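User:
Note these tokens:
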Amino acid sequence: MFPRRILFTCALLFSFLLAGNSLMAQTQKVALVKLPHLQKYLNSTSDTTYIINFWATWCKPCIEELPNFEAVQKQYAGQPVQVVLVSMDFAKDLDKKVVPFVNRHKLQSTVFLLDEPDQNAWIDLVDPSWSGAIPATLFVNNARKQRLFLEKPITLAQLNTYLTSTFSHTP
């Protein structure tokens, strides 16, 4: 039989390991990427509808609509629908602002920070009509030749409407 002290120590160690795993599960990785990473989504030939939302931690309308994108990601789990949240914050703010924001809000969608300071070099690749204002969202499914760009905040009802009527997905 094990002495109580050893059992207590093992139980305590096991509790710390569980707590550590739970904290790690809550921490979202946010990559700092260049344009080719974004282009993988823009040019994908898979039959996946990508909902690419451009946002920033300092943009109030962006922050208000983020829960809508998270809800859609959950509603359409198991379907060829993927939410991608592209932070437009400065690269220097990744660790001190973006990662803490993502973790505090428990964002589960794919999140990365686009490190391309010259917007004129890439903004037309997203959509030629885009002025550069955020929030902005691109729905794209290249396999179906479907594309919709919106330069405004989007409600959950609007997201669902676009996905069901334009892109023929059902939650």
